[in-house]
Amino acid sequence: MCPTGKELPVLGARSFPEEADTALVPGELPNEAGSCWRVRDPPSSAWMGMGRPARSRSPGQLENSSLFLQAFLLLLLCRHVSSQCKILRCNSEYVAATLHLHGPGRGAAFCTALRSYSLCTRRTARTCRGDLAFHSAVHGIEDLMIQNNCSKEGPTALPRPRPPAPNPQGFESLDICDYERSFLYKHGRPPGFQHCAAFGDPHIRTFHDDFHTCRVEGSWPLLDNDYLFVQATSSPVAKGSNATVTSKLTIIFKNMKECIDQKVYQAELDNVPAAFQDGSVNGGMRPGGSSLVIWERSPGRHVEIRADYIGTTIAVRQAGRQLSFSIRAAEEVARAFTEEQDLQLCVGGCPHSQRMSRSPRERGRVPAETARALCREMLPVEDVYFQSCVFDVVTSGDTNFTMAAHGALEDARLFLPDAEKLHIFQAGGGCPLISPSFLLFLLPCGLWAVLLHF
Question: Is residue 230 helix, strand or coil?
Answer without folding.
Answer: strand
